[in-house]
Structures are given as structure tokens and as C-alpha cells.
Amino acid sequence: MKPRIYRTGHLNLTRGFTLIEMAIVLIIITLVVGGALVPLGAQIEQRQRAETQKTLDEIKEALIGYAVSQGKLPCPSAVVPTIPNGVATASCSGIATGYIPWDTLGVNNKDAWGNLIHYAVDAQFTTTAFGLGTTGSITIKTRNADGSTPSISSNIPVVVLSLGKNGYGAMSADGINLSTPATFATNNPDEYQNQNVNSNTFYSRTPAPQGTATTLGGEFDDMVVWISPNILFNRMVAASVLPRN
């Protein structure tokens, strides 16, 4: 006689996630996505800075080309009536500051953040009267870890700069002036110095985040390039522009 087998039904091994398990999964997803966003943001900013650096370098080459063809550097862009038009003004004086004369040079007029490129030139170099003995009046400084500010280049004829991602004090390509914090001059002394009208001193240093001590120059994301007088003279001599007859 065979033993009787009682069937009580199949055991259902399939079940849904509990609320606790779903919460754990969501936390893990949040952490993974959050961790991925930081590098992505850094990559985007790195790409923007590389794009802006390329623009600044192209402008620098265009300025040298202009000096070779015209025998002088251009003045900053004219402003008509309150918005730069990209055409170099006919004359300027002192350390002339403003915006790059992009139409005159045939170059891009804005950085990767959509703001106009700033420009400062020693007016001595904007006339054909300058020669191999002319000394520029612009100085480029940096800032060391101890807060000291040594000069890294002097006697500079021209500087080109982007006011960086924060855009403090910049003008958009649409002619809109970007606002600055009320504490800008105090908390961002190096950036503030870079946009002082008729200033002959500019800072070029490693980017620093918001909250950096003012004794270390404060927050900084400006991008600065310049042409040394020796490079300018060399290119003009090679093109037989200098010395002048």
C-alpha cells in the first residue's frame, strides 16, 4: 500500500520589494547619481575654460597680426551709446581699458560663459610712434600661498582677459551688465583689481573657490593672457615693421 501524499499547494517564492528595500535602493541610486554629477560639472567647467583659453590665444595672435600689418596695437572697442560695437576707437590714452575690438580684429568677442572679453592696452603702443625702446606700463602679478603678490611679468603692452564663470563685473554679449556682490571689492580683491578702469596691474593665478580668504586674494576664476614686449618686437622686426625708417 502506497503512502498517501497530501498536497498543500505550491510555495510561492516570488514576492515584491518591501518599503525598506525600496528605500535602500533609492538611497543607493541617489548616491550614485550624486557622485556622477560632481565630475560631470567639473568636466563641463574644464571644457568651458579650455574653450575660453583657445579664444584668448586666438585674440592674442590676432593682436600680433594687427601690429604687424598696421604698425600699432588697436584701442579698445568703441561704445555706442552704452554697448561696445567691436570697432576700435580712433585714439586712446594712458592704460586704455574696455572690451576687445572684435570686429576690427575679426575674432570671437565672448568667452564660454557668453560674456564679452576684456582688453587693456598701453596707449603708447596704439600709435606708430612707438619703437624698440618703448617700455610698456602694465604689470602682471600672481599670489603665492603665503599671500604675497610678486610680479611675474612687467613692461607689458597689452592684456586680454575673461572674467570667468562667476562673471562678476562682466557684460554679456547682449550688452547686459552682470551684477557683483556688495562685498565684491573686499572679498574678491584680485578679481576687483582686474577690472579697475585704467589699472596698470593685473592678476593671473590659480583659480580659487568662493570663501577663499581675502589675504589669499579671495575667490578667483579670471583668465588672463598678455603679450610680452619681446614677443611683439620680435614679430614686428621679423616682418620688417621695426625698426621704423
Tell me what you see in this structure.
There is one protein chain. By secondary structure, the protein is an alpha+beta fold. The chain has one domain. The protein is 31% helix and 17% strand. It contains five helices and nine strands, in the order αβββαββββααββα. The strands form three sheets. Strands 3-4-7-9 form a four-stranded antiparallel beta sheet. It has a three-stranded mixed beta sheet with strand order 6-5-8. It has a two-stranded antiparallel ribbon with strand order 1-2. A hairpin with a 4-residue loop joins strand 1 and strand 2. It is elongated and about 90 Å long. The termini are far apart. The model has no long low-confidence stretch (mean pLDDT 91).
Distance between the termini: 128 Å
3D shape: elongated
Number of helices: 5
For this structure, the quaternary state is single chain
Task: Considering the chains and any ligands shown, give keywords for the structure.
17% strand, three-stranded mixed β-sheet, single chain, 31% helix, four-stranded antiparallel β-sheet, 245 residues, alpha+beta, 5 helices
Describe the structure concisely for a colleague.
This protein has 245 residues and is of the alpha+beta class. The chain has helices at 19-70, 102-105, 184-187, 189-194, 229-238; strands at 77-79, 84-88, 95-99, 118-122, 138-141, 151-156, 158-162, 201-203, 223-227.
List the helices and strands and how they pair.
Blueprint: H1 19-70, E1 77-79, E2 84-88, E3 95-99, H2 102-105, E4 118-122, E5 138-141, E6 151-156, E7 158-162, H3 184-187, H4 189-194, E8 201-203, E9 223-227, H5 229-238
Parallel strand pairs: 5-8
Antiparallel strand pairs: 1-2, 3-4, 4-7, 5-6, 7-9
